[in-house]
Amino acid sequence: MVATHTTQQVAPELTMRSDDHLLEVNHLKMYFPITQGLFSRVVGYTKAADDVNFYIRKGETLGLVGESGCGKTTVGRCIVRAYEPTSGEILYRDPDGGVTDLAALEGKEIQPYRKDIRMIFQDPYSSLNPRMTVFQVISEALRVNNLASGSEMRDRVEYLLQRVGLRPEYIQRYPHAFSGGERQRIGIARSLVTNPKLVVCDEAVSGLDVSIRAQILNLLEELQDDFDLTYLFISHDLSVIRHICDRVVVMYVGKIVEVASGLDVYVDPKHPYTEALMSSVPVSNPRARDKGTRILLEGEVADPSNPPSGCYFHPRCRYAQQLCREQAPPLKDLGNEHYSACHFAEELSLAGVRMV
Amino acid sequence: MEHTANDTLDFHETTEESLKLEVASQWQLMWWKFRKHKLAVISGIIVILFYVVALFCEFFSPTVPTTYLDVYATAPPQRLRLFLDGKWFPHVTGYRGERDPVSFRKTWEIDYSTYIPVGLFVHGDPYKLWGLIPGDLHLIGPKNPGDPFYLMGADMIGRDVFGRLIYSSRISLTVGLVGMVISLSFGILLGGISGLVGGAVDNIIQRIIEILMSIPTLPVWLSLAAVVPIDWPALRVYFMISIILSLISWTGMARVVRSKFLALREEDFVMAAMLDGCSRGRLIMRHMLPSFLSHIIASITLWIPGLILGETALSFLGLGLRPPVVSWGVMLQDTQKVAVIARYPWLLAPGGAVFIIVLTLNFLGDGLRDAADPY
Amino acid sequence: MADNRVLLEVRDLKVHFFTDEGVVKAVDGVDLTIESGKTLCLVGESGCGKSVACRAFLGIVQRPGRIVSGEILFHPDGNGATIDIAAMDPKGAEIRQIRGREISMIFQEPMTSLSPMYTVGNQIIENIVLHTRDSKEIARERTIQLLDQVGIPRPDRLVDEYPFRLSGGMRQRAMIAMALSCNPTMLIADEPTTALDVTTQAQIIDLILDLQHEYGMAVLFITHDLGVVAELADDVAVMYLGKVVERAPVDTIFNDPKHPYTQSLLRSIPKIAMRREELDPIKGMVPNPFRRPDGCTFHPRCPKAMEVCRHVVPSVTQLDPNHLVRCLLYESQEGRPDESAPAGRN
Q: C-alpha distances in angstroms, A315 versus A308, A310, A312?
């Protein structure tokens, strides 16, 4: 245990459910206040993340999928502590074995963990400061954390540039000299410069063209092996999630509806929302057009500041019953690491993604 | 997996020209963009000239502002001629004054028989540069000290309008600058706090700004200027006027700074820097401020004209600076009567100076604003 | 479904942008035919000129862009009348008769074409009145009917709402209702589902297909998403750097693509039905618009590039009646059946 991590001394009894978990998120809540009027009176809360529970194993890629406004980005930002969670635990295992609750850290206490948990942003244009050179952008984390300086720092940056497929000579150029795909490579180099353990990829390939997206996905997989990385991969693109993730968490209106292995969630979904999501994915083969019927959801995504009663999905669910309107379903363990927040998860036989 | 690493490299073709662009910093890009804006470049040169003249006004002026020759009161402008009988002989012609027997008005006629030789770097009225270094060298002036030399005519008591115009530029151009520095610091400080801290503090600052902005400016200036004691030394009045001018105008800057901070706070690159572990101070100084420094410079340029006009207006009304201090507004006090303007139109020369500097500053500011965000 | 006569014929269309830094040949010799009642998907990566091309079909290319050459022949009805849109004054009265009435367009972000100042109903009613000269009451009836048809709940109330009160999917529906208000013979949809979530995207795609069945209009659908293409296209045109490199029926494009770019594009997308095979990306990136490669513009990224590709601009080869490809690999086999093809001119 590192002596500088003071919180560990305060709460040394923190443990995780399994030894191979790198991160555990327990009952995470992130509420944003809604204010009104001249004096910003709080009139309600947007429950962007509402009692979220999941874990990430060391070395795996966990996908976090859902439609816009489901809270997936909020969860990611809580984990990197860009936000201060309203309540809940984010347990993180240090490289030396100690367990820390990141959600409980305040102010400067977070600093040592910033280098372990890094983030790759969606927009390769807005995430690089146009007024800083590639070197300044990538080395900033080394500089402010006093991890390296002088030629050591330069070597590290040049090495990383090379690893992400850019020439080390580009080090003095400004971001405007690069295309979207190259900028995303710079963003990846920045996140890896501190030798992180966990990287949160927030829609990291969503802004890229198909051919470039494939390059970046391959690069991320290659780097995962070489640098022993664990990814939390946030995306709305189910094909990308399918390609890169070992396990998948599906979110709807701030809650987790289903957790399963990458295959199960696609072929054997246990939640009606996942089923609808899977049937909506355009399959890139015209011969799949007539295979199975597409489930077209009625109505709109619920408002996270004013969600419906019971199961949030019930107004749009074609299997909804009286129980669903009255009681919020818990996240049930269905065995084989498959979890579903549906009252009828065991009874329903749901269709997966359309296959050719 | 070699291919991802190597094949990409071959496609980033770099020519010498593109390399120049790719390693160009923000300021270089801005300069390249600004350069294309011809009107702004010309205006920039004129503005610089104005400020150089203001800085060395003792040298550029042919006289000192207190010199007067009442025999030449209200003498019209002379024309500077460079040749006499085809030979290089810079000179102005003399005057012959007559008094109209009916109206007792003095009328002037050009006396073609007297030539007043004019030279560069001549010795004339002694002065102290910036009140410190004594000297008597003038850029231009009559070769024989004491000869009448009125390129822009003389005023009611025979002082050289051209010389006084040059001396006034020092006061008139800097009263804006000093005021600007004050409002800028106010604006950045309060706007920064408002944008960064947010919440109740932001609310209070915003309400204060709204209240200040809803007060009509001219009456406030007038009443504040009116309470400046009449027996204060000129320098103190000058600073007082600067402060009065800036008291109101910082609100605009505060709003600009606040909105910039609010917008930047949401930028991904600022969040990325925060996640890099940057302290709050570093976040502001290194990552946020450089992003809108150029905008601030541009808005300053668009803003000085307002302060120059403010000083001119106050002094013209007799509520700003007072003689013996010379500013464009003070000089324009003489033209409060229509009859004066009709008879001695050259007394309006300071108005022309105000016009040129305000116009060029606006052109320059426009150019800077367009170039401020080169990305 | 309507008979498959040619509705729009584009011949050698070139749209160039004249910027300070040089000329960008955004569209550089595009040939297309769109048949009535069919859906043509125009696919390509960003910067390939697909959006610019379809803007040209409506005469709404933004400055500094200009149609430099080519014909856009529009055959509005079966009696052989032909209008060349490329030759029309983009601000003239004639083109306004076509725009919004014969050919409508929907955009990626509906807010760019719905004014925030007017209610949804107001804007659709105005469009109907402008083009049909019906009375306001009739137009309002028709608007409510249209909103109902595009799946907007309680259309009689929504007709008086402002666009910002609607969700993204609802806005796109309102936009489609507006586009359909004058029974267009052709609908141009520029990435209409890109900004939407998958479940909403599925709804909109279904809606467009349904409406097409009902009205028999031709749809030109622009997208970069090959999944969407597979869902709704009859025919596909693949664009790369301002040129159509391959055009074929959708099944051929996905199961028997000929152009190396189409092949690579298909290999580079992750497939939902399979996992963890390594993706096969196209190497490199789209070149700088001011410095396009000589010869075939795809040759630096092409896995099958030959020496000749560096210098020779490929022309269009017709592999079978419906399958056109612009690649030197096939030119030798076929000779040059399409001598009139414009390739190689520039």
A: 8, 10, 7
Can you list the alpha helix ranges (DSSP code H) found in C87-197? 93-98, 120-132, 136-149, 155-158, 168-180
CB pairs under 8 A between A and B: 95
> Which parts of chain C sit beneath pLDDT 70?
1-4, 78-80, 273-277, 332-346
| Distance between CA atoms of residues B224 and B329, nearest Å | 17
Residue B150 — very low, low, confident or very high, per pLDDT cuts 50/70/90?
Answer: confident
Tens digits of residue pLDDT in C123-156: 889 888 888 888 888 999 989 988 988 888 888 8
> How far apart, in whole angstroms, are the C-alpha atoms of residue B306 and residue B303?
6
Q: Alpha-carbon dihedral of residues C104, C105, C111, C115, nearest 10 degrees?
A: -30
- Give the three-state DSSP class for B88: strand
> Which partners does chain C have (≥3 C-beta pairs < 8 Å)?
A, B
ipTM of this predicted structure: 0.86
Q: Which DSSP category does B80 fall into? A: P
Residue A286 contacts C where some CB pair is shorter than 8 Å:
yes
Long-range contacts of the stretch A6-10 (C-beta < 8 A, 24+): A6/A109, A7/A100, A7/A101, A7/A104, A7/A105, A7/A109, A8/A98, A8/A99, A8/A100
Q: Which residue of C has its CA nearest to A284?
A: C227
Say if the Cβ atoms of A209 and C273 lie within 8 Å.
no
* Residue C114: C-alpha distances to residues B128, C72, C106, C120, C138 (Å): 69, 27, 10, 8, 21
How far is it, in rounded angstroms, from Cα C15 to Cα C27? 5
pTM here is 0.81
- Domains assigned to chain B: 65-157 (no CATH), 165-371 (1.10.3720.10)
Let me know if B113 is exposed, middle or buried by CB neighbors in 10 A (0-12, 13-18, 19+). Answer: exposed
Peptide bond into A95 cis (omega under 30): no
Contact: B269, A126; criterion CB under 8 Å: yes
The verdict on C300 touching B (C-beta cutoff 8 Å) is: yes
At residue C340, the pLDDT reads 42
pLDDT digit string, tens, across residues C304-322:
988 889 988 998 999 988 8
